Amino acid sequence: MRYQFDFSAPLAYWPDFLAGAATTLGLSLAASAFGFLLGVFCALASTGRSAWLARLCSVYVETIRNTPLLVQIFIVYFGFASVGIKVDALTAATAALVINVGAYTSEIVRAGVESIPRGQLEAAECLALNRRQVLMHVVLPPAIERVYPALTSQYVLLMLASSITSQISAEELTAVANRIQSETFRSVETYLIVAAAYLLLSMVMRGVFWCASYVAFPRRRRLGTPI
Q1: Domain extents in the chain
Q2: What fold characterizes domain 8-223?
Q3: Distance (Å, rounded) from C-alpha 21 to C-alpha 120?
Q4: In sequence order, what are the residues at sequence separation of 6 or more whose Cβ sits closer than 8 angstroms to the Cβ of residue 216?
Q5: Which of 59, 148, 173, 177 has a CA positioned 20 to 30 A from the CA of residue 108?
């Protein structure tokens, strides 16, 4: 028996696909931005002078990296509700993704921080720079530039993993696809469209990060260094 492809039924829902893709992109960019800030804080805390804060960040990173994202999403979504905090599925999904990607960002940025030569730090101390100035001008800019390709890949993977948030009914692309295929009974066609949409979203995110790198790292623009 030969299967007859018919994309007309799912493509009739193109506004829904477009809305789902926009939600996925917005969710991913928001989680990437806040996850980056959380990851940088944890990376600096892990390499800082406070032993108890370093241990706390280490527990957080190891816990998140060794538990499934879906379980983390359920804990955040149902955990908020259990303590009387009413949030919609999209807010809970964003919070869970931030917590998840923050742990991975922390390890990536920490590797960049630890790659800074000791001589640069000693030179900064000789110039009488305080700790905040050393971090902001000597450590973080070159550290983040070095690990930027890894961060880009991590955030693209985050966007792909955001499809799991459909399990708590967050109206992102996969959740929209699940609803459309249940209405049209064209599962193969629907998910082929979604696969193509995720491929396009990956290219869009890489383009966004490529543009951001050329603004944030002028040396990349001069040398033509790829992301």
Answers
A1: 8-223
A2: MetI-like fold (1.10.3720)
A3: 44
A4: 144, 145
A5: 173
